[in-house]
Amino acid sequence: MKSKLKSAAQITQLLVKNGDKRKALGCQRFFKTAPGEYAEGDQFIGITMPILRSLLKETKSGLPVVISIVV
């Protein structure tokens, strides 16, 4: 049986660990995150939806993960 992650810190750590830095950099360019641009300051970890779905199943706590991504 897989363990259920409970804290936001554990979930965030898991997301960052499974992110792709190359994809994150591409998203930062695409969404214009440089100073003065419309998404200034936004940060990306480069996680894809298939990986995110598998992590949701693994953690069995979908809502906290979604909140952590949106916020």
Which keywords apply here?
single chain, 71 residues, mainly alpha, elongated
Helix and strand topology:
Layout: H1 8-17, H2 21-30, H3 49-59, H4 62-70
Overview of this structure, please?
This protein has 71 residues and is mainly α. It has four helices and no strands. The model has no long low-confidence stretch (mean pLDDT 79).
Short summary:
The protein has 71 residues and is mainly alpha-helical. It contains four helices and no strands.
> Strand tally, please?
0
- Which runs of at least 5 residues are low in confidence (pLDDT < 50)? none
Structural class: mainly alpha
Q: How would you characterize the largest beta sheet?
A: none
H-E order: HHHH
The helix tally amounts to 4
Radius of gyration, in Å, reads 13 Å
Average pLDDT number: 79
Helix-residue proportion: 55-70%
Percentage beta strand = under 5%
State the separation between the terminal residues, measured CA to CA.
30 Å
The general outline is elongated
